[in-house]
């Protein structure tokens, strides 16, 4: 069942709720730090069928996911402790993110649930409270490691998701952010209580009739996701057994670097200590009369003596990237040289061909998309990097794409025309990106291109020491370029 996360509170409930909120403690931790807390060790041990689960990899073997160990939210309320982790699967679906919530009480009774969060607006970092904005739906599935509990509780879970609507004046978003340890003003904490009913816990014993009944209920909820009545108690009347226990208490955990991608760059730099100097050296070659390029592929480890390889220069003075490399690319860097392809100078930023090449490589399965960084250093003195946030978005860009076309292929002509029009508008117009255009304006044009063509990438400007990275975004209101420095 999907229910919108939406706060609606009746006035008579406010006092009672404030009392409830004041009693909630939220703190941050890490998996390793929690292994020093006996209460947590006991709880996580119960999740393993085979052995004490004192390693996050046990989850991978038994449940098909990995715990991201760096960020854990611990919520405590009236003797119960709730540990929330973000989890990751081998194949990530970009439409949602998932949390594991472990619910344990003072006598060690433990339950665990998977929370699937489906944003209806793009996730965005919140300046306040080290958090992020979330609007969307939540779907909860109990983990049925404990048969006794599964038989007793079965299919309905009531959960309270903590949000915070405190915002500073001047900050743009009115979307509530998820509660963090810094959200300690109970007047601004809001809880969204939802009940999810699932067939998974009941297994075959529930039968088809029950399935239909829950299915119908789910449909009626789904049809009115913005109604604002996913409030406390909703669903309890139609959800047998759901209210016998206090709700599972959680606040969403999501690695913001999946939006900002700053860490993707810094981790790669840290993994390959020689990379920075290789990039600086490459950036110094823009006065050559041809492009230069380097790359790192997935075969390279931190121990590889020379992870950086050279991209050959092709006949037109542009780099000749191998579309069928033995290992996926994790980094490609190239120059836009002073003469450019036609001798009149160069683009100060990535070209549409650059984007098409990466898109093509994704289609061919040759990009390690999660860790991939793509650089360009130009004769205009500009330095940029991009990372991939949405693989399927960038993958779709190159269309029709090079040699992939079989004879008789029917093309989606509106799509072809739409992409061509976007490229035309970005690069071929007088005010577009061309060899003589103003690099400051090019930046803005390219950011517009990212948005319009739905490239699913982040753009960074880089200083000449390859140390300071600033994420570039378009202010949605003023359309000006905003720079957000990466902190690490
Ligand atoms: Zn807050
Ligand atoms: Zn290029």
Describe the structure.
The chain is elongated, with a radius of gyration of 26 Å. The protein has helices spanning 11-22, 31-34, 38-45, 57-63, 147-153, 207-222, 257-260, 262-271, 275-283, 352-363, 391-397, 413-428, 439-452, and strands at residues 3-4, 25-29, 66-77, 80-88, 97-104, 110-119, 124-126, 131-133, 136-142, 156-164, 177-178, 189-197, 248-250, 293-297, 309-311, 329-336, 373-378, 383-388, 457-462, 469-474, 481-485. It has two domains: 3-255, no CATH class; 259-485, no CATH class. Helix content is 26%, strand content 26%. It has 13 helices and 21 strands. The chain has 488 residues and is an alpha+beta fold. It has an eight-stranded mixed beta sheet with strand order 15-14-16-17-18-19-20-21. Strand 20 (469-474) and strand 21 (481-485) form a beta hairpin.
